[in-house]
Amino acid sequence: MTAARPVPHLRTELPGPLAREVLARDLAVTSRSLPRAYPLVPQRGRGCVIEDVDGNLFLDFNAGIAVNSTGHAHPRVVEAVQRQSAELLHYSASDFYLPIYSRMCEALAETAPIDGPVRVFLTNSGAEAVEGALKLARYATGRPYVISFFGAFHGRSYGAVTLTASKAKYHKGFGPLLPGVLHAPYGTDETFEHIENVLFRYQVPADEVAAVFVEPVQGEGGYVVPPPGWLARLRELCDRHGILLVADEVQSGAGRTGRMWAVEHTGVRPDVLISAKGLASGLPLGAFMARAELMERWGAGAHGSTYGGSPVPCAAGLATLETIREEGLLANATRIGDHLLAGLGTLRARHPGLVTDVRGVGLMIGIEFDTAEHAEAVQRKAFERGLLVLECGESSIRMSPPLVVAEQEADTALRLFAEAVGEVADAG
Ligand SMILES: Cc1ncc(COP(=O)(O)O)c(C=O)c1O
Fold first, then answer.
1. 17-73+328-427 to CATH, choices 3.30.70.1230, 3.90.1150.10, 2.60.40.10, 3.90.1800.10
2. 318 C-beta closer than 6 A to ligand 1
3. How far lies 345's CA from each of 77, 342, 357, 376, 417, in Å?
């Protein structure tokens, strides 16, 4: 990457001439369903910096949407991927015994905030892990129904998209969805009122509910942090009715909130935990882990995956876990996250009508605006200044930088974000 230039550093208009060529080719051939946010055309990355095809340098506070946990091209991850690629690219771990597959499962199980022994299934993506957890929950309990939350995002495949209820457009045109999925309000007292006095009273008996799927911090739904004690009450409700608590940590996990798993902030122990983004610093690796006894109920052939836990993603996953541990990235996420939250709090105080809320844990930070249009305008103005952030929820912007982000980079991001907000405020 171009050395010794300040970051960000923009040397063309955006999109630049080479980016425009890519956009033209892309728009002619790719599926129209892809929800592109703005015309960023990345070519290479290092740490928290992305260089686009025109040589513009951006400060990346998206981390590939909470994926590049150790930053772009972390030397340990690159070295592990290169070494493993030369050794063995693929063999299906579903049908045979890959040493690196069980090593990755052991390493994950050691981190699991789950009571007792843990078993692990590796996948290619978050949605695939959600599907697996859903199948496991039904199989292990023999119960048909599952509950998830308004504002939830669990992925795009049929089961996962049925659990999702963050935006109606994710369901539009795809019905009928998976039967047996019910939704409740997220993060309020109403949650319990609705589940006990509406769902269990009018719709399904509690003893036919297999699982509650919950994001400990909602991601795509707007980076929403539930109030203290809420998850513990949910755990208690599940225990009372023999329902499994499944924590979807695809976005909140792998160190993003300053703990390995966001549930660790609450002391709640889920029965199943799902991970993906961030687990292998950019390579496709997901997992669902469960109390061992649950995965001992289903037998050979009940679930598998040709590529899930393939050797190269596992190598990247092991290097990622090692890097998070040995480079103190959880502490860094907490420290820089607090610094960002403080700076954004000041910004909110300066523009109370425009910036209506700032919230988050560690490096999972949401900034709420008064309208969706204003959130989108700020996202665009930030891009034009070389800062990459992304909308979420109805009118929020998320900041999810790599866990390696430095204080100086956080200060630059705060300055650019404040300029973008200021410009939108001035425009009225
Ligand atoms: C909480 C959560 N679960 C599941 C998913 C789906 O993951 P993937 O896009 O890897 O299928 C996402 C993706 O944003 C997510 O945020």
1. 3.90.1150.10
2. no
3. 35, 5, 8, 20, 12
